[in-house]
């Protein structure tokens, strides 16, 4: 089991916990008792499931409520149900899933996917407006993407490669402690590397939608409008929400 596999299995386990359990069993202590009981995923430290729950809350997959001291209750959100439906479960886990739960997941997946319909249609090619040196390429770790000049037309293939490379690089560096990378950080890397047109909403947003449709990335929405305005502006506009996080699928 790779670390990426383990990360996905942990997330799926915590989400499924909240779909299965009745409200009285959703308090932190009870949830952690069952989580660390699965030592192959979580070991014996409650900090592992606790830290992941914080990330799931920030991503809008679960909600914390009825907080009392260090404890709290949790519930899975509609977005979390959609996420659960497309996340692999640990093969050795034994879970009881009712028909009603399966029906909920089917509905939520359809609703989750529909939020991407408002994104733009991909453009054919784009003109780069800025010149960047080979030195800046090395500094930003985009070895797989060729350098370009102001007169070079950047194809969608180049932008797609740069986006996937940027997600991986940001996950290894600034956001190594997170499961997800903010979309604004990826857009800014593309702007630095390939110019403002490649990072524009018309171009970048459609590339992201295409990668999502190809199941090469996952996009996560946020409803937290208290985030910095410039970060929200550089995220992806969705229908009634902002797609703020991304990860490699």
Overview of the molecule:
With 249 residues, the chain is of the alpha+beta class. It folds into 2 domains: 3-114, Arc Repressor Mutant, subunit A (Orthogonal Bundle), CATH 1.10.10; 125-248, no CATH class. The chain is built from 11 helices and 8 strands. The protein has helices spanning 3-20, 28-37, 39-42, 47-58, 78-85, 99-114, 134-139, 156-172, 183-194, 201-213, 229-233; strands at 62-68, 71-76, 125-127, 153-155, 181-182, 217-222, 236-237, 242-248. The strands form 3 sheets. Strands 5, 6, 7 and 8 form a 4-stranded antiparallel β-sheet that branches. Strands 1-2 form a two-stranded antiparallel sheet. A hairpin with a 2-residue loop joins strand 1 and strand 2 (71-76). The two termini are 16 Å apart. The model is unreliable at 118-151 (pLDDT under 50).
**What number is the mean pLDDT?**
76
Terminal CA distance reads 16 Å
Structural class: alpha+beta
Helix content: 40-55%
The helix tally amounts to 11
Q: Element order, helices and strands?
A: HHHHEEHHEHEHEHHEHEE
Biggest sheet descriptor: 4 strands, antiparallel
Q: What number of domains?
A: 2
Q: What would the principal axes of the Cα set say about the shape?
A: elongated
* Number of E strands: 8
Low-confidence stretches are 118-151
- Oligomeric form: single chain
Radius of gyration: 20 Å
Q: Tell me the fraction of residues in β-strands, as a range.
A: 5-15%
């Amino acid at each position: 089991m790779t670390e990426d596999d383990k990360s996905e299995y942990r997330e799926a386990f915590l989400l499924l916990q909240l779909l299965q359990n009745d409200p009285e069993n959703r308090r932190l202590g009870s949830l952690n008792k069952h989580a660390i009981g699965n030592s192959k995923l979580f070991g014996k430290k409650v900090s592992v499931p606790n830290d992941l729950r914080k990330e799931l809350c920030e991503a809008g997959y679960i909600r914390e409520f009825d907080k009392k001291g260090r404890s709290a209750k949790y519930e899975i959100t509609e977005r979390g149900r959609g996420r659960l439906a497309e996340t692999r479960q640990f093969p050795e886990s034994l879970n009881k899933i009712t028909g009603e739960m399966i029906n909920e997941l089917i509905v939520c997946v359809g609703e989750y996917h529909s939020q991407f319909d408002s994104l733009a249609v991909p453009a054919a090619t784009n003109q780069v407006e800025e010149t960047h040196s080979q030195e800046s390429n090395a500094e930003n770790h985009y070895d797989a993407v060729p350098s370009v000049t102001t007169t070079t037309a950047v194809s969608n293939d180049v932008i797609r490669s740069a986006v996937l490379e940027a997600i991986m690089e940001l996950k290894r560096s600034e956001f190594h402690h997170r499961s997800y990378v903010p979309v604004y950080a990826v857009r800014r890397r593309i702007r630095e590397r390939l110019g403002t047109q490649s990072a524009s909403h018309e171009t970048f947003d459609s590339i992201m939608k295409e990668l999502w449709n190809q199941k090469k990335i996952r996009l996560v929405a946020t409803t937290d409008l208290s985030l910095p305005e410039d970060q929200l502006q550089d995220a992806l506009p969705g229908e009634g929400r902002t797609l703020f996080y991304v990860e490699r699928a």
